Each structure stands twice: as structure tokens, then as C-alpha cells.
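Example record for the data management plan.
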Amino acid sequence: MDLKFIKYEKRNHIAYITFNRPERMNALHPPCHLEMDSVWDDFVADKSAWVAIVTGAGDKGFSAGNDLRWTAENSGQLLTGTIGLKGGFAGITARYDIYKPIIAAVNGFALGGGFEIALACDIIIAAEHARFGLPEPRVGLMAAAGGVHRLPRQIPLKIAMGMMLTGKHITAADALRYGIANEVVPLKDLMATAEKWAGEIMECSPLSVQATKEAAMSGLGMPVEAALAKRYDLMSKLFRSKDAIEGPLAFSQKRKPNWTGE
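Corresponding structural encoding:
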């Protein structure tokens, strides 16, 4: 895979995805979106990749979102970067078929589209100096890549509205207090902490984890009764898997299970 603006590598069942434009605070422009779309396709297709960790290069920005400088230099092409792409902004904000867990390791500013990327992930680990916000109204835009919908669903409505209508930033400590971040750590510990979370996830069956995420996410907009009724297809597939045999067997033999994802 020929990537210029994204670093992508896989080790020990973890896919590491790094926005690599530190000179632009890892802001994204159309070629970035195109690369990210292909990266997510690869992650979904690779059965040996069980968890993804998304971060930004450097120590200042996770992602400053849309590259406004590029937008200014290419008038009239604001939206062309995501048109026709499966996943929207960064290939992820409008993609709903990724049931493998995604961890955002937020190493600095996560603003606008950068915050929307983090909100689209399952777990957020933040460096102590990280800041979050949807400042689009301050530049005549709106957080249209899911931010205006995800944020009010993930934190109290009045806090979300206050953030969105003023464009103000919040600190990593605030993000933890409001329930956006799962953990806040010193920058030097950020990736190790994200890998710790990935390791704890991978102590579970990857198929069970994926079924759990799919059931949870698909059921969010349903009454509980309807969500419960839909789970049977997932259960049927999961319970026929090799991992469903391995789990109880390992428990009875008092050993760690050998998950295969099959």
C-alpha cells in the first residue's frame, strides 16, 4: 500500500494508524481521506488484525481536522475530499461496518474533524495536554462529519451544546470528567496505555468482541426489545465458531485460551 500522508503498520494483531502531517497539526486534506479509506478497507479485511490504534505524528496534534489552509488554497473544493468515499472524513466518520475495536490515542489537539474521528472510535486515551473541540462555527462551518450528532449522544446535552455553539475547547481532564475519554495519562505513557487497553481487549475472543460491538452499536437506536430480537443472528454465528469451543475448554483446563478468530 503506497501511503504518503498516513503511517500504517501491523504488529501482534494490532493495526497502528498514524496521521503523518505534523507540519499541519495532522490536519487532513483530500489525499489523506483517500488513503484512510484504503487503510480501513485493509483493516476490515485482515483477519489477523484485531484492534486498531489511531494517533497523530508528533506531540502537538492528534488532528486539527479539516486542512483549512488547503481549503483556502483550493476554493470550492471543501467537500470534494470525502465525496465518493465509503467512510467519509478520514474514512471513518461515516463508516458503520467496522466491528473491530478502535482506540484513539489522542496526543494533542483533537479539533473539528479530528475530534469527530476520536468520537467515531470506541475508546479514547488522551495525553494530559490534549484538547478537544468542535470550533467549526468560528470559521463559518459546522461539524458535519458526525460531531453534531455523536457529541450530544456521548456527553450531557447541555455540555455538548455549550461546546458546539461556542466552539470552545475542553481539556483532557474535562474530557475524562464528562466521559469522553477513558483514561488520561502523561504523553510519554500514551501509546503504552493504548497498547495496554488493546492487550486487555485481546484477552477476549476477537469474534466475541466484534459481536459485542456490532450488537451494542446497531442497537443504540432501537428499543431494547427490538435490539434483543436482532441479536440472535449474531449469537448463532458466534456460538458456531472455534473460539466458542476454545473459551469454555480453556476455562475448564485452567489455562489461557488460544484465540484464532475463527
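Summary line stored alongside the record: Strands lie at 6-11, 14-19, 51-56, 61-63, 102-106, 109-111, 123-127, 131-133, 169-171, 183-185.
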